Description:
The chain is an alpha/beta fold and 257 residues long.
Amino acid sequence: MTTxxxxxxxxxxGAAFARRLAAQGHNLVLVARDTERLAEQATELxxxxxxxxxxxxADLSTDAGIESVEARLGDRTHPxxxxxxxxxxxxxxxxxxxxxxxxxxxxxxxxxxxxxxxSAATASMRERGRGGVVNVASVAAFVPRGTYGASKxxxxxxxxxxxxxLAGSGVRLMALCPGFVRTEFHQRAGMGTxxxxxxLWLDADKLVAAALADLARGxxxxxxxxxxxxxxxxxxxxxxxxxxxxxxRTGRKYGPQ
Length: 257
């Protein structure tokens, strides 16, 4: 039986990955900061699907938290076959309205943690000749949206480059770029969502099903919804200066996740 490790597993997209993978018979390593919620999630998934669910409490905005997950990914006796780098958050406010500490914490979680955990996982996977990594980015990666969009753009570029370098090794890497998903993401950041049209919202479970199908097909970037694929097609044709103006007016607090 294969094992999947999911960061940010207790809510939103991470929880949807956990439900889907458990239903498919994968054992899980659940990673988040809240030990109590992790334990509840592990018990529920074990009882419902009969899989083994290991919990690992870790704060990926700290070196100690990243190191603990790196160590688990490097365990050759209990290998991880699929890594889902999902942990992330948003900051309310525009550039210079957000504290430097919060900006650096975002870079730590969205960039450094993704780099280090992907490297730890793929080193072991390459030795075995199989494995997969899903790095959760955002459609915000394709428009100018401050630190959030920049960090997600890094995730996309890094994942594509690493996938190319590991081609033929049996290890697949994919950047998942969702739009607005009904999760705790905006609430946790204190972000309002009243001005977001209803048709832009995605269902986390359907999103994950489409993402895993794209991973199986060998895609390196997944925008798993026709609406957002069409929107990103328009974005590609829109001058960067105009995109920057629209992004500035709407503010970062409405960045998708």
